[in-house]
TrEMBL record:
The lineage of its organism: Eukaryota, Fungi, Fungi incertae sedis, Mucoromycota, Mucoromycotina. InterPro entries: ATPase_P-typ_cation-transptr_C (IPR006068), ATPase_P-typ_cation-transptr_N (IPR004014), ATPase_P-typ_cyto_dom_N (IPR023299), ATPase_P-typ_P_site (IPR018303), ATPase_P-typ_TM_dom_sf (IPR023298), ATPase_P-typ_transduc_dom_A_sf (IPR008250), ATPase_P-type_domA (IPR059000), Cation_transp_ATPase_P-type (IPR050510). It comes from Umbelopsis ramanniana AG. NCBIfam families: ATPase_P-type (TIGR01494). GO terms for cellular component: plasma membrane. It comes from the Eukaryota. This is Cation-transporting P-type ATPase N-terminal domain-containing protein. Residues 217-292 form the Cation-transporting P-type ATPase N-terminal domain. GO terms for biological process: intracellular potassium ion homeostasis; intracellular sodium ion homeostasis; potassium ion import across plasma membrane; proton transmembrane transport; sodium ion export across plasma membrane. One of its GO terms (molecular function) is ATP hydrolysis activity.
Length: 1189
């Protein structure tokens, strides 16, 4: 049962609540639970909204009231405020009669009482715009004559609270819907209101801190109201200087947060302190100390190359934020103490009166109070290159934030004055400005930006290799000393083993492989800005995608028209603007009356629907295409013709055919373009209606988000004493302004002057018809359609007043015509791409600013939502997301597939939560406000066509064609890149591992070491880098997108790949040892000749192994020996260098090699054949036992 409202009599409790005092943390914990329940209550069968609100009531009454706890955690209070506001506006009933539910009233009372009791709750409410409170509190539903006495008391109490405690809410009319203000005015002057004021109810303690207007754009405030909110600001003299220090102390300096500056020395130091590089440097120092300058020179070249490559990549990446460094404006022209002065923009404070002139930069976010032909260039924020004309008018909006391009009364920091002059009050400065918020978010994400998966994995692999190198050095020295060998010689051997461990070409080959992947992706309309992002794409487990323009065409089209006679018209022209393409088909009302799937909500509607008494001629009633005459015009019933008339003329867009290329070009709002295209398809284009029939526009009442309607008034030539009022808008608002609905003509007619002079046959709107309209509206919305209503009336004006005040032209007593459904259709191929992603184990999440019904319908069409699959049918609002703490978002189970009506902050929260869940996230976006989330994501994806420049700079990847299918292709290419990286890592480590086993076994067996340090370095350079680079361009294997994504926490190598590396390395070492020991102990080769044989044998096997490594588990004979021409070229090149090192005079001396005999080459070929047979057998066993790589 609802708690008595604000202003009711005191309630007596049966226990003495003053006998105990509860702890603050305990109270906060309880409220946190209830706030979470407020969010989950619709999906939670174990708890009802009434129980949640009763729990909050208990905490308030017994643990907070009476001053027990007047301060609670601010963020918690913000979420509680949002949670209660979600509930205060719950209503039931139909379009014409709505009332608040009992739960909504309980939430309303709780909202007011928390407002009285908790300081931080008051702060949270004070930060909300008046229009938000109007839409959420729905005070207008509680002040009507039919409202209960409790509801009226609550409405009076809430108005009293908000208007007396917050200067920005001083005008109660801002808090009540315009149409209901008359009822509220009557209520406020009633005896009930006077009694409440006498009892001094709804009073709350005043905050000790000065109440300064919170940073906001105040686009919904008139200049007069704005000046009342800034009482210290005079519209002519500006701020007095004595209040500036207080404001600066409160809001800080007007500076953008500077991004961290890149340090070249720090980057070089980072490269040189890499574990693998440190080992090479140590080896280089030791070689120099022992005067082995040849070996030292080779090592130095390797170190320098690795450092240069790594530094170059990091330096390029550090430039991502550099554009923001140049966005702040250094000077500002401000009026203070009545004097116009110019000083540093950093000294501007909220409340300053700023003067703007042509060509100047704007120093802060301003609310304009005077303009003179003023236009601002805002492309940095909106992506629109056309300057925006500004006004001082207030903008009424249903949401807290409207698109920046729609903020006609604001000017934004770091944008530029393109034309004219203006004066404005600074309402946001520094980090609170639009550009400041973006800068702060990007800086924060850049500081916490983790390494990409390949960077983390290679770093971890490097540490393992360094550990192995240290262990081997120590082991070799200990073994050598045990064999009574010279310590200096053993140290050299240890160093040679350490050098063998480090794959010197790993960094270079990885970089080249990713660069080649970048080139391949560019051919698929995908531009990669950071190399590691190529591989990271292959690791992603979640793709968060915007809807409009990425998953859908980004173009609205008319798809259905339902008229009040219950006929349904379907338009099949797709997104084409050509009026001759496509067709219009109709499901007649007689057929729809007999359709059992047509939903009828009420018994009255069912009884009203006539039961056919004769056999139906279904052939005549079946859906059919409406034919066109020679002039491309259609004949249809009156309701259809009037609806097309509204679509064409209550419309400011235009469509024309280009004379240059005959393409159809549209100008105007996308929704109006779609309506005009539908009218053109019916042959009733605007030129025909205006020029041929003689209709003439004489007045227009523009659309605004408060009325949700647009109307145009037309006269007909020869009938100047009568007018047509054509109206379109939100179905709920439109129907509430209609007194009748149109009854269709019995026969089909043509649109001509005779038709327009006929009277419209009507019937009164009643509850049954209103319910029918509501059902059809819901049916369209469930299909993802944006629904608008059409209405008309014929009137005769008085001509005694101005057009704005003409009573006959007002939007009332209209005749309802029907509903039109529009959609932004999914792009071709996107549903297939989503299916490919899901098959590959990659979840697709839709994040959109669109309505949840539309988003859910589109997501269902694309397969993102699957109602019959557990865990794949959840959609939530961004506003609901605001209720949850970061930890609660992480714990959502199942995690939603669709997020609708989201803000940029919501996107950042979603990405962060997914990362905390262990997911690798790819995030798409186009606007500058998307930049923080794109920067935070593991892979940020910007739109190339619709994306702003800052968004592209923050992204890792840019889609040239703005198509989701391109992302899927990029994911596939990312997997391809990692596949190739894995192949050459396995190849490099198996080759270097062979050198380790070779040296270690010979040392342990007291055999003369078969390779010198120079031989090892030369082998690593010629046998590692060219074949490894060839593996980097290996063609894609079959079934790449049928594999699940790799575990982000797993290393580059798993147990199977480590085993493959170890066994292959041991095999190569064993074959080389066999050839080497036979040469020394059986054939008695000199040590130098035996070493050359060992070098040639090992290098030949390694080069052959490069060919075998083109696939880790499949046979090379399946992929084709010549399938990778780059590999053939690399083998020829490397083999040529090997032969040069053996036979070229001078070079072989430097490398400590001698010529190899023909008999030795026969033994080398035998070893190579044995190796190939063993490796292919191992692959066969790997496939047989299903080893996962």
């Amino acid at each position: 049962m609802s708690k008595p409202p604000l202003g009711s009599a005191n309630t007596e409790y049966s226990i003495d609540v003053n006998s105990f005092r509860d702890g603050k943390l305990s109270i906060e914990q309880q409220i946190e639970i209830y706030v979470h329940d407020l969010f989950n209550v619709q999906d939670n069968k174990d708890i009802s909204l009434d129980e949640v609100l009763a729990g909050i009531r208990y905490v308030l009454d017994f643990r907070i009231k009476g001053g027990r706890q007047d301060h609670l955690e601010p963020e918690l209070m913000k979420r509680l405020c949002e949670g209660l506001l979600l509930c205060t506006g719950i209503t039931n009933g139909h379009f014409l009669r709505k009332t608040t539910t009992e739960d909504a009233d309980t939430a309303f009372f709780l909202f007011g009482e928390f407002l009285e009791e908790v300081e931080e709750f008051r702060v949270a409410v004070g930060e909300k715009p008046a229009f938000d409170l109007q839409q959420s509190l729905k005070i207008h539903h509680r002040c009507q004559p039919s409202s209960t006495n409790e509801q009226k008391q609550a409405a009076i109490g809430m108005i009293h609270l908000l208007t007396t405690l917050f200067p920005q809410f001083h005008d109660w009319r801002d808090l009540v819907k315009e149409r209901e203000q008359g009822d509220m005015e009557v209520l406020l002057s009633s005896e009930l209101a006077k009694d409440i004021e006498k009892k001094e109810v709804a009073k709350m303690p005043q905050s000790s801190a000065p109440l300064l207007p919170p940073p906001s754009l105040y686009f919904d405030k008139s200049v007069k109201k704005l000046l009342k909110m800034f009482p210290n600001t005079d519209p002519d003299k500006g701020l007095p200087s004595d209040v500036v220090p207080l404001l600066r102390e409160q809001f800080g300096q007007n500076k953008l947060p500077e991004p961290p500056k890149p340090s070249a020395l720090k980057m070089i130091w980072t490269q040189l302190t890499d574990f693998m590089v440190i080992i090479l440097i140590i080896a280089c120092i030791v070689e120099a100390a022992e005067q082995e300058f040849n070996s030292m020179a080779v090592l130095l070249v390797v170190i320098v190359l690795n450092t240069v490559i790594g530094f170059t990549q990091e330096w390029k990446a550090s430039k991502t934020l550099e554009a923001l460094m140049h966005l702040s404006t250094p000077q500002a022209t401000v009026i203070r103490d009545g004097v116009q002065q110019t000083f540093s923009a950093a000294d501007v404070v909220p409340g300053d009166l700023v003067v703007l002139d042509e060509g100047e930069g704007i120093p802060a976010d301003l609310r304009l109070i005077e303009v003179s032909q003023f236009e601002a260039e805002e492309s940095i924020l909106t992506g629109e290159s056309v300057p925006v004309a500004k006004t001082t008018d207030a903008i009424k909006a249903k949401v807290r934030k409207i698109p920046l391009g729609d903020c006609k009364g604001n000017a934004f920091m770091s944008t530029v004055v393109a034309k004219g002059r203006a004066k404005g009050i600074a309402v946001r400065t520094g980090e609170q400005t639009e550009i400041g918020k973006i800068s702060s978010a990007i800086n924060a994400s850049s500081k916490t930006k983790v390494k990409t998966p390949i960077q983390r994995k290679l770093s971890r692999l490097g540490k393992y290799l360094v550990l192995i190198a240290i262990v081997l050095c120590v082991l070799v020295v200990v073994i050598g000393i045990a064999w009574k060998k010279e310590a200096r010689a053993m140290v050299n051997v240890g160093l040679s083993l350490a050098v063998s461990v480090i794959p010197e070409g790993l960094v270079a080959v990885t970089t080249v492989t990713m660069a080649l992947g970048v080139r391949r992706m560019a051919a698929s309309q995908c531009v990669v800005r950071t190399l590691p992002a190529v591989e990271t794409l292959g690791s992603v487990t979640v793709v968060c995608s915007d809807k409009t323009g990425t998953l859908t065409e980004g173009k609205m089209r008319t798809t259905q028209l339902w008229t009040s006679d219950n006929s349904l018209y379907n338009f099949t022209n797709g997104a084409s603007l050509d009026p001759k393409e496509g067709s219009i088909s109709v499901e007649p009302s007689e057929l729809r009356k007999r359709m059992i799937h047509i939903h009828r909500s009420t018994k009255e509607e069912i009884e009203r629907t006539p039961t056919p008494t004769t056999a139906a001629d279904y052939a005549a009633m079946k859906p059919h295409v409406i034919p066109r005459n020679d002039d491309n015009h259609i004949k249809a019933n009156s309701n259809m013709l009037y609806s097309i008339l509204v679509a064409s003329l209550c419309n400011n867009s235009s469509i024309r055919q280009s004379e240059e290329n005959n393409e159809w070009i549209s100008v105007g709002d996308p929704t109006e373009v779609a309506l005009l295209a539908a009218a053109n398809q019916a042959g009733l284009n605007r030129e025909y209606l205006l020029e041929t029939l003689g209709l003439k526009k004489i007045f227009e009442r523009a659309f605004d988000s408060e009325r949700k309607l647009m109307s145009s008034v037309y006269t007909l030539k020869g009938q100047e004493d009568g007018e047509f009022v054509l109206c379109k808008g939100a179905p709920e608002e439109l129907l509430s302004n209609c007194s009748h609905y149109a009854v269709a003509s019995a026969d089909n007619k043509s649109m001509n002057q005779e038709f327009l002079t006929e009277n419209i046959t009507t019937s009164p709107v009643d509850d049954v018809f209103a319910t029918h309209v509501s059902d059809e509206n819901s049916a369209m919305a469930q299909k993802g359609l944006r629904v608008l209503g059409f209405a008309i009336k014929k009137v005769r004006s008085t001509g005694k007043t101005s057009p704005e005040d003409e009573p006959a032209w007002k939007e009332d007593n209209l005749v309802f015509l029907g509903l039109v459904g529009l959609i932004d259709p999914p792009k071709k191929g996107v549903s297939d791409s989503v299916a490919i992603c899901q098959k590959a184990g990659v979840d697709v999440i839709m994040i959109t600013g669109d309505h949840v019904e539309t988003a859910t319908a589109i997501a269902t069409q694309l397969g993102i939502i699957r109602p019959n699959v557990p865990g794949m049918s959840r959609a939530i609002l961004g506003r609901e997301l605001d209720l949850l703490s970061d930890d609660a978002i992480v714990e959502l189970n199942p995690f939603p597939n669709v997020f609708a009506r989201v803000s940029p902050d919501n996107k950042l929260k979603i990405v962060t939560a997914l990362q905390k869940r262990g997911e690798l996230v790819a995030m798409t976006g186009d606007g500058v406000n998307d930049a923080p989330a794109i920067k935070q994501a593991d892979v940020g994806v910007a739109m190339g066509m619709a994306g702003t420049e800052i968004t592209k700079q923050a992204a890792d990847i840019v889609l040239v064609n703005d198509n989701f299918s391109t992302i899927v292709a990029a994911v596939e290419e990312g997997r391809h890149v990692f596949d190739n990286i894995l192949k050459f890592i396995v190849y490099l480590l198996s080759c270097n591992g062979a050198e380790i086993f070779l040296m270690l076994i010979c040392t342990a067996a007291d055999i003369e070491t078969p390779l010198t340090v120079m031989m090892i370095l030369w082998a690593n350079i010629i046998a590692d880098i060219p074949p490894a680079m060839a593996l980097g361009v290996e063609p894609q294997e079959v079934g790449l997108m049928s594999r699940p994504p790799r575990n982000p926490k797993a290393g580059v190598l798993n147990r199977v790949t480590w085993s493959v590396i170890g066994l292959q390395a041991l095999l190569m070492a064993a074959l080389t040892i066999a050839a080497y020991t036979i040469a020394i102990y059986v054939e008695h080769y000199p040590v130098a000749d035996a070493r050359s044989l060992a070098f040639a044998c090992l290098t030949t096997i390694q080069l052959l192994h490069g060919l075998l490594s083109r696939t880790i588990s499949r046979s090379v004979f399946e992929t084709g020996i010549f399938g990778n021409k780059w590999m053939i070229g690399a083998l020829v090149l490397s083999y040529g260098f090997m032969l040069m090192g053996i036979y070229c005079p001078g070079l072989n001396d430097w490398l400590e090699l001698t010529p190899v005999s023909g008999w030795s080459w026969i033994k080398i070929v035998v070893c190579a054949v044995v190796h190939a047979i063993c490796v292919e057998t191992g692959k066969l066993l790997l496939r047989y036992f299903g080893g996962s790589i």
